[in-house]
Sequence to fold (743 residues):
Amino acid sequence: MGHRILALIVKEFLALFRDKKSRLAVIVPPILQLLIFGYAATFDLEHAALAIFNEDTGPFSRDLVGRFERSTGFAVVGYLRSEAEIQPLIDRQGALLVLRIGEQCSAEVARGEGCPVQVLIDGRNSNTAMLALNSVRTIVADFNEERIEQTTGAKLPARLNLRAWFNPNLESRWFIVPGIVALLAMIVTLVVTALSVAREREAGTFDQLLVTPLHPWEILIGKAMPGLIVGVGEASLIIAVAVFWFRVPFNGHLATLYPALIVYVLSIIGVGLMISSFSATLQQALLGAFLFIVPAVTLSGFSTPIANMPDFMQALTYLDPMRYFLTIVRRIFLEGAGVEYFWHELWPMSLIAVVTLALATWLFRHRMY
Amino acid sequence: MKPGRLLRLRGMIRKEWLQVVRDPSSIAIAFFLPLLLLFIFGYGVSLDAENIRVALVIEQADSQSLSFAGGFDQSPYFAPMLLPSIQEAETALRESRVDGIVWLRHNFGRDYLRKESPPIGVIVNGVDANTARLIEGYVQGIWFGWLEQQAERAGRTLKSPVRLEQRIWFNPEVRSTDFLVPGILAVIMTLIGALLTALVIAREWERGTMEALMVTRISVVEILMGKLIPYFILGMGGLVLALTMAHFLFQVPIRGSLWLLLAVSALFLWVALGMGFFISTIFKSQFVAALVAMVSTFLPAFILSGFIFDIRSMPAVIQGLTHLIAARYYVAILQTLFLVGDVWSVILPNAAAMAAMGLFFHGMVYRKTRKQLE
Fold:
């Protein structure tokens, strides 16, 4: 019996890797995508395009403008001379924000009043707008605090002492890159498994496989093996790139990560084979794969937090295996969490794996059409 | 156009149309997919943090501490919970039961009255850096509001040297849905375009029917047009559905002209279909074409189009790479047309870039398909 399964596994690998184009399509894009996405997927705003419209000529406003010119958060792209220039500049995205300092600035400050400063931000991307606004506020707050201390000698009545755990500089790359491990492991595994049965159905060879002495569960093992090896293998490569290239701190243990990774890949294999057994043609399998991938990525919390979703959407995320692995991989990387901290993620993921693999096996013989 | 050509084209379109109707998956791609995706994206994708779980540790319940903590109760952004000690709060943070801690030490009120500027400890879980940064911003807002309120109560006004007035244009309520939903349309249309056509030409090659078509009097242009037109009509149907949902279900304003929006979307659909045809023509095998479509359509459109990750925040090299992604141009136009209006200096260059990519894809398909006859 062992050699029967082995023969099937060899056949499955040949079907996948014999053709040079499909070999390349499975192996190259994930690595390339990790390198590109690792740099691209960032929420950190640096060198935001800032235009300055300073109607005041006094030293106070010059001092304030200097703060913005020296900050790494902003890159000054121009100095405006009239109000009429502001709108067209923002409309055509020439600048993300405009800092407008009123005519009376230095005079007001001299009288002991505040200098009116207006910040106008392009809200087309509201997240970028919020981040830019936060940096403006921080610069202005620091400036204010220093001025008050200089002029009156008094301190603010209370001060904030902000600290971030696990990611002290708040680099969003540390958050996104471990997420990409989960993302690409899913895509690769699904690519390998979702088309495998449908392809044979369309070519008619799956019926031949069914009339051999192989049990459905033996076929399952044969069909699952390439997905498991390719999925876990590529995930390992991606983890290595995340650690050694992107320098994301890996505070946990590989021994806790790998069992979770294998369960995750198995659950994706289950989904992939289920989609594949449902489909009569490759076109249908491709559609099925996307009908799973897109919601799974969206609901996993990869790019936007699950906590921001409405309750019924949050409930749906419990069906998404990527949701669980994403939490696990991020916590192992950054927090160094042990199994005791993510047991609540591990068992639902295992349940999904068992159910989908069983359903896929059943569907081999019970077609839907 | 000669009558014979029209007749052949009609025959070809009819044949493609029958294939579409007989395999329900194409209809599903055009109509079910946008409905499902827009629903999931529209409700599922939000960067607006609300009800952030934050632990309040108040070691001494004096009036200063309590009035500061009151700011968290009133804020729509926070769902505070009182914890008795910093140790318990840190455990809660470690176990992900809270996303942040606000810590007022026992001498906070005393030092405040002595004007010693006591610190307010704030710890956030930095794993999700973006959310952490937003949380810090909200905490700063509460802190500043509280300082002003305290000054007012003491009969003074807090005179800060710089009075900052902020205005966020186009989206004053900073609703992330308003910029995400238009961007999502680009992702959805990329998927629809590629899924509809990625296998269409490969299927003909694989089944040998392409050669059968080639020996008829039909020309390559007619074959390609015959394949393009039915899928274009299907795709436009899906697009109109998605636009309607974006506007009426998710309440995203459309400030530009509707006709321009439809015209630009038609252009993008043409590019996306071209990309599918291109994959199909280059690889000639349905299996490989399907593999390539899976790895090369969704993720680049999701990550490199600027729909969620702002292109302006990426390193220069990656910004250069994004120019190869058609969705990038469409996202820029969509965000402008939906939220700003008909800004020609944004629309024209982006539309020109899309047209160039479309010409490239369709031109390559035409060339590659003809060569096979020789």
Q: What stands out?
A: The mean pLDDT of chain A is 87. The longest helix of chain A spans residues 216-244.
